[in-house]
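Obj.: predict assembly geometry.
Materials: sequence records (below).
Method: joint structure prediction, all chains together.
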Amino acid sequence: MTLATEREAETEVTYPDPTPPVLGGFQGLPARPGWFSQHLGTAAIGGVLGYLLGHWLGNVVGSGYTNIANSGSNSIAVTGGLLLGVLGWLVGIGALNYPLAKIVGLEPRPDYESTSWTKYLRYTCDHKVVGLQYVIGVLTFFFTGGLLAMGIRTELLSPTTHIFGPGTYIAIVSEHGTIMMMMATSVVVGPLGNWLIPLMIGARRTAFPRVEAFSFWVFSAGYFVILSALFYGGFPTGWTGYAPLQTQAGVGMMSYLVGFAVIGLGMMTAGFNLAVTIINYRAPGMTWSRIPIFVWSILATCALLTLATPTLVAAGLFGILDHTVQTAFYVTEHGGSSFLWENLFWFFGHPEVYIMALPGFGIVAELLPVFTRKPLFAYKVAAAGMVGVALLSFFVWQHHLFQSGINPDMRPLFMLTTELISIPTGFIFLVGMGTLYKAKIRFEVPMLFCLAVFFNFLIGGVTGVFLSDVPVNVTVHGSFFVLAHFHYTIMGGIIFAFFGGLYFWLPKMTGKTMNKKLGKIHFWCMFIFFNMTFFPMFLIGLLGQPRRVFEYAANLQALNDFASVSAFLLGASFLIFIANFVWSIFIKPTPSPHNPWNSLGLEWQTPTPVPYYNFERIPVVLSDPYHYSEDNAPAVADLGDGTLVAAAASSPSSVVEDPRPPAQ
Amino acid sequence: MWRMVAIWAILSVVLDPLFYFLVGPHIPPGDMTSAAVSNQFDFNVLFLIALPVLLAVWVYLAYSIIMWRASRKGVPEPVGGTEARGHLGVQVGWIVTSTVIVLGLFVFGIVELITTAGSGGGEGPNPIWTPTSATILPVQVIAQQWKFTYRYPTFGGFESQQLVLPNDTAIAFHVTSLDVIHDFWAYQLSIKADANPQLDNVAYTTTRQTGSVTVRCDELCGLWHGAMFNYGKVVSKTAFNIWAKATEKATAANTKDLPPFAYTYVPDANGSDGGYYPDNVDPYSHSEVYGATPAKS
Amino acid sequence: MSFGGRLSVVLGLFIVAAGFAVWGVVGFLLPQPPTVDFTSAQPAGAPVNLTVQTVGSIGNGYGNHPTWVSYLVKNPQGQWIHSTIWKVPAHTRINLTVEQFDSGSPLRNQQWGRVQGTIGNVMTLNGKPISVYNSNTGNGVGHTFSIPTLGISVPLVGVNPNANNICSQAPCSSPSSVVNIIRTSFVTSGPGNYPWQCFVPCGLGFLFGNGGPMSTVGYMGGFLDVEA
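Observations (raw structure tokens):
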């Protein structure tokens, strides 16, 4: 049969009318309206009740023990409180309704499309709603961590005058690092991955929609868990949590350990879900060489999320046991080893930073063709590079431990693997530079962010090669040089890419357009002040200032002050973004043109707002979405209603043919 | 295209030597010890290679932003199709070049590690790269929350808060901790070694110049990590011997009360208050380390 | 919702979030123990008499860690203040008196049994001058008063743990409770903020004894704020 006749013979799949959902209850039981349905408010109530119950249970169990009575701090109560608080949060939002109903034998309520804005406050199986929930969640994490960074730079204005006490300063440093790392693991996979992947591969949903929603609600619970550290006196170990300082710390440490376990659960579920979706839910014709490069980056990232995070959860569990029930996994004196934590943590920790780098590469590679009107250069090299980075990232972790007293034979081995991983990491530059060659570049706001990623990640990546060289590592390990390196790669890489992706895809995700002028001001302020903040830190580190210190040599004050003032301005630049975002999306929205960037991507070929089921008919994919400026280019996809997504002509202003009228 | 290459070549040829001769000699950690000289040289070589790489990308980005932007008059339309999707020569060339550079850097790094006896980094309890000198002065660095103290086993094992070292001598730093993980970072000596409880982390260097040394703790170890620093000095061999013998005599009474010198110590958890594990349980692990012999100086 | 309604909701949420952040910072992050000022209690250049006491557990009435060991300081008005941040003048002799009410133990590092950095490197223990104390003898060392960056360290000898009048809650006073009086003097250097700590890991219930009160300013560590 030809494609056309096949489609005629296909029976129409009908979907139920989008009537308001049956809220609360199970089928057959009366529905509870409005305030008594399950939403963010009930989640909060559940969380508080769970916390109180867990804390009380912990006190009942633990108060009698000598070390708890002597120290006056009950880690068991805090751990119990946090864990049951998370459980209560999940019960409150309704994340456990389906499994509980199935266990008891009742029929769980079906998933209806919800039309009211309150769907954003609920546990919902629409991947697009989850994606937008993640946007708010990720931005909340980011700005909280950012405020803490302002606190750090305030303290470092003077080596002798102290705004915060030294214990509080360490707590702020640790909190900043942990919140940012927790956020950055999901900053692209969560919002953009969940929102875009099914649309980019021509699917109606992800493989496990409930798991996807669960990953968001667990992620948001993790925010409160890690934030609770500040109210418990903080934890003194930095985000790396080295034992045995970890075992010596007070109850704030439990917020870190439980927080990472909870976020780890969110990471594993989100990663697993998207990986299965990409592998199994691709539309017909969407072969591996036709999937958008962003999808490749998410696939590589999800492999790491799924495989590396369990190590962190196990390491955290050992830490919780050491802290609550006095096991000695990490205590050398009793037969454990402080090296055990170091190795377990970094075995996760290194793939973790590639979890943060790869989606940034994916966004940049995805956006470049749209704004250069050229196909992606060396698509296969880009995909191979991402897979290569993901694979190699498991073999480099001991470069964090070069001076730690590891077996000296390990140092050349890990120097080699770390230097080798810079090869596939560099492919993104080959791809970017090749795509820019003889292009016709439109400097829209997303494109500016992509170019900034190249600039920043170049500096970050090259300084990484410096760090991988063991002799130079002796000079710079543990100093501000390392700090500048990872801020250039993580913030300069994925955070810039994330903002570029937000500006690019928000018109599609929300149907509203962001103010272009404010976007450009935001970009230039962020880019300039970012470089002014972190570039001096390379010098500060070379001149001998270690990380995480509240006092430093007096002759470094000028450099520190320069970095601090630039950091305050960098923080202020985000206010421009917040103002733009809130004004354009919520307060005075302007409808966006249907395909403002004239992108060939499949996600842009849906109506706005995108219906619950994404595509009326599953498209048949005919080629990759990069046939810009090509005569007689093949169509990207057959949308099944007699229309084809055609390739763009040469001119940058030519409109991508979309035969259907834009839905408003 | 050739304009780009020309600009890049000129910039590289001019800036690289400028860096090497003007900035290079001032790159930390200086040249007070053999490890410091080697690490400074290593950094400079890496920078010499990194600078042309940085320039290549920057020149290309600048060129493309200026010459190929849509708002510039007369920019030709881009050409898509198979030629724009890949170019085997460019791809192969890129991969080969980056591999060659990276493997070259690897070999260079190994050579530096071996010829400088570990380049000042902590080699663990069984170091494989050791100085060739006949006499090596052992200095034990004991890290505790929140101060470094130093023991000199060849002078009766006295313990001092001051770090004094002789010039023109190969020194073995045996770094260990009495509680949590610290890191002994002697900046001008270019020594960096983590202090782990019950582990002897050995780092070597040979002093070449006299001068003052800044020691900072480089691994977050609790409340006063930021205040855990002290100053030391490298003095002439005779001055060092005078100081060491005088201090040995002056602190003899206290040295008798110290535990006998050992490369690692197990803090007496029952002795100092503050036990975390139950008090009447023997805290000492009876596990053994097979095959490893503690490093002699 | 109307434009005005949306604007007010957003502004309201922003104010709530900002308020929460301010409350967190002001209520939890900024507070530190008060600074006790000794610079104006005597004429310029005259020695400063600094009297402190060390207690086994601070008890109720001094914050939310009643089981923690702590220092207390007697301010120029004679009251016992729970603070470890003391402001003293530069280049001045400080006559330190420590009323040590806590029991002791062997030192983790007997190096801290030496009196260092004080005038004559000596201290008096209940009137008897000593310069080295072997913590493996007698009642051990209860705490040390150490300013690592100035090279000052004084071992504070412990009292008999089996005495029937050992002080259990601050503020302690003698002769109702058994005490060791330790006196020593040192000269402050130039202006600066000098951290001081204790080297006896006496944080009960914390691994290696260095958590809890040992790691919290206000209990067993603080600042000597030397003003010009």
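Conclusions so far: Residues 37-110 of chain A form one domain.
To do: check interface contacts against the pulldown list.
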